[in-house]
Amino acid sequence: xxxxxxxxxxxxxxxxxxxxxxxxxxxxxxxxxxxxxxxxxxxxxxxxxxxxxxxxxxxxxxxxxxxxxxxxxxxxxxxxxxxxxxxxxxxxxxxxxxxxxxxxxxxxxxxxxxxxxxxxxxxxxxxxxxxxxxxxxxxxxxxxxxxxxxxxxxxxxxxxxxxxxxxxxxxxxxxxxxxxxxxxxxxxxxxxxxxxxxxxxxxxxxxx
Length: 208
What we know:
Layout: E1 2-6, H1 13-22, E2 26-31, E3 45-48, H2 54-61, E4 66-69, H3 82-97, E5 101-105, H4 119-125, H5 130-144, E6 149-155, E7 157-159, E8 168-170, E9 180-182, H6 183-195, E10 202-207
Parallel strand pairs: 1-2, 1-4, 2-3, 4-5, 5-6, 6-10, 7-9
Antiparallel strand pairs: 8-10
């Protein structure tokens, strides 16, 4: 499968790239700084560009089977419009390039999932993460409204732990406290979802 991976050098995207390469996929890593790929650079096709640029993404997306986005803001709690601008660019580029499959990483607590959150989660989401989650909600809604074969992924609090393979994924999961999931497990789910049809036109809540 030919995958275009956005956020390829980020903490989750790096796991997606590694999994895709190991599974035999043809990977284009869309990055701001190709040197950040390190030892993976020789095993993928690095493309330098701006993830909020329709032009950059359309040029990169041509000839691919799916786009997998693991874009994030790192430790920042300010969105600065990243997700709304990136989603608009991705949707336009996908349609122009004829790529129908999109797997998009969001966060649990965004949009309708806020109502399913625990008391502890709601406190965090409505204060510390308010800016980022508001931006992500607009982006997610535009993706759901698109004509693409989309999957939006809603992980709980992300950790840097190893992949355990014992996570739960469903349209909705019960929440208590502030549960976690490793970025490695999220990457495994996203990679699997891109290869199958089970999660097309569905939002996946994922947690340990």
